[in-house]
Amino acid sequence: MSEQPGNADGGESYLGSVVSGLRGMAENVVKAAGAHNPLGELPALPEVATHPGAMSAAQLGAMRTAIQAQRDAVAAMQSQLTAFDEQLQVLQRLLVPLAEWSATWARLEERVVPGHHQATPEDADRE
């Protein structure tokens, strides 16, 4: 069989670059989320022969394990982000009545203590 023209390395460089790119993206996502790599070190990339079909079962298994580890990391980050979003939603709901109570308290103070005036969000809107 002849090699494909313009591809002296066969599939090795292409497949290796794709897998390296995916690994790099997954590591960047983990870093951007502020987490240390929760899975520890991922297994080293297997050496790829000139054609992907020439890979051994062990190499394919290692690649499959690495991909599954990356998918597990993404799923864990999604779960963490969902939990964080739910916490922010609860906090936001708690702040609405607190802000209303604070504004009511400021109006009461204004009526009870002559000449006492606290800045409120409404005052900032008027300026």
Describe the structure.
The protein has 127 residues and is mostly helical. The chain has one domain. Helix content is 65%, strand content 0%. The chain has three helices and no strands. The chain has helices at residues 12-32, 57-112, 121-126. The longest helix is centred in the middle third of the chain and has 56 residues, at 57-112. The chain starts with 11 loop residues before the first helix and ends with a helix.
What is the number of beta strands? 0
Distance between the termini: 80 Å
Q: How helical, in percent, are the residues? A: 55-70%
N to C succession of SSEs: HHH
Q: Rg to the nearest angstrom?
A: 29 Å
Helix/strand/pairing category? mainly alpha
Indicate how many domains the architecture comprises. 1
Q: How many helices?
A: 3
Shape: rod-shaped
List unreliable stretches of 5+ residues: 1-9
Largest sheet: none
Strand content: under 5%
Mean pLDDT: 75
